[in-house]
Task: structure prediction
Amino acid sequence: MNNDKGKNAIFDIGKYFSSANLKKDLPASIVVFLVALPLCLGIALASGAPLFAGVLTGIIGGIVVSAISGSQLSVSGPAAGLTVIVFGAIASLGSYETFLLAVVLAGILQIVFGILKAGIIANYFPSSVIEGMLAAIGIILILKQLPHAVGFDSDFEGDQSFFQADHENTFSAIVAASNMISYGALIISSLSLLIMIFWPRIKKMSAIPAPVLVVAAGIILTILFQNTGLALSPEQLVTIPVVNTFSEFTGLFSFPDFSQISNQNVWTVAFTIAIVASIETLLSIEAVDKIDPVKRVSPTNRELVAQGIGNMTSGMLGGLPMTSVIVRSSVNVNSGGRTKMSAIYHGFWLLLSLLFIPMLLNKIPLACLAAILLITGYKLAKIALFKKMWKNGKDQFIPFVVTVIAIVLTDLLKGVAIGMLIGVFYILRTNLRNPYFYKFEQNGGKKVIRIKLAQEVSFLNKAAIQYTLTNLPKESDVIIDGTDSMFIDKDVLEIIHNFKHNAYTKGTIVEIVNIRDNYEVPRLKELIYKPAKNN
Result:
C-alpha cells in the first residue's frame, strides 16, 4: 500500500494543473459538457422533474463528486437507469420536496456503504460481463441515436431501456424514424459524422476538438435553415432553461421537506435509490477502469462516499439522484481526458452556460450531438472486441455475448444481472474442474496415485473430489498432498478423512501429506504487503 500523502490527497495541484494534463483535460471537458447537457435535460424530463434539476445534478456530479472521487476519468450525473424509480417516487410521495428528502437520505446511506467497505463487491464482477456491458452500451448508443440523427426526437436523450416511454422500443423507433426523416437534421448529422471521422486526421487542425467544430457547424446550419424548408423544430434542439436575472436563478432551487423524515415511504425510496445508484456506480467505475489508457484502479469505497456526498448535496438543492455514468465517462476517455479535472471543468461549463449563454445553447441541434455519440458507440462496440473475446474461449465469450444481448433487449441492471448469472456459472464450472492435480506412478506391481490439492479447495470442489476418490481403482496406494493448499474447506477435509478411514475395505492404502485438521480464511488485511520498518 502506498502511503505517499501527495498521491493519496484529493487534490494534487501540481498533477492536475500541469500543462500536459491541461492540454488533454480542457478539450475533453468541453466535449463531455456538450454531450452531458442534453442528457441531463432528457433524464430530468423523463423523470418528471424540473429541467433545472437535471442540469444542477450534472453540475454537482462534475464539481463535487469528481473532486472527492478517486477515479480520474469517471463522470457523474443523473442516470437513465433511475428515471423509472424517480418518476414513480415523485408521484407516490406526493411532492417533489418530499422526494428530495429521500435523495438526501439515499446519499447518507451511500456514505455508510462506503465506510462499511461495501465497494468491495465491485471486485466480483466478472471481466467478461464488464466487457459485455461496454459493448452493449456502444450498441445502444448507436441504435438510440439513429432516430435523433434523422430528427425523430420522440424519446428522451439518454434513454438506454429497450422499451421506451413513447411506447416504441429500440428497433421500432428506428423504423418509425425512417418514415419521419427531417432533412435539415439529416444534413446536420451527416456533416457532423464526416467532421468527426476526418477532422482528427488533419494534424495541423487537430488542436481544435472535432466535437466542438461539430457543434459550431450545427449552430450555424440551424440559423441558416431558419425560414426554409429545412428549419428544425424546437423538439430537435437543446432546451435549457433561460435565466434572465439572479433572482430567477435562485428561484429555480428547491429544498427537501424534513417534516416527512418519519414517513416510511420516504425511507423505502431512499433505500431503493441508494442500492440501485451504488450498483450502477460500481459497474460504471469498473467499466471506466477497463477503458482507461493508463489502466488506473479506482478506489470503490471512496467512490461510494463521493457519490453519497454528491446525492446529499443534490437533494439539498433540488437536484436528482446521480451515479457514475458510463456514457459520459466513455466520452471523456475517447476525448482524451487525462485526470479528474476534465469532469470538474465540465461541471463548471454546465454552470456557466446556464448563467450566461442559454440562448446560444438552445440553438444546438440534437442531430449533431447524435453524431458525437454514434462515434462513441462505435468505439465501445468495435468488432475487434468481439474477436478478442472469442479468442479468449467460450467461458469468456458466452457470458460476454449474453450480457450484450440482455442489456440491449432489457436495460443495464437487468442485462448485467443475466450476464452475471451466466458468468458465475462458467466460473463455478471451471472451479469445479480444478480442485487438484493427480499423477499415476508405479511402485513395483502396485499403482500409486498422487493427488496434489490446489491452493484453494472450497466447498464448491466437494462434489468433484468425492467423485474422484470414490472411483479410484481398488488395491492402490493413494497419496493426498496438501502442501500447496492455503485453504481446504471443512467439508472437503471430512471427505478426505472418511475416505482414508474406509479405504482398507478396498485394499487401498492412503497417506495424507501436509493437510491440517483446520484451516482459517485469512483476513483481507493479512493479504496486504507491509514492508518491514527500518529500525
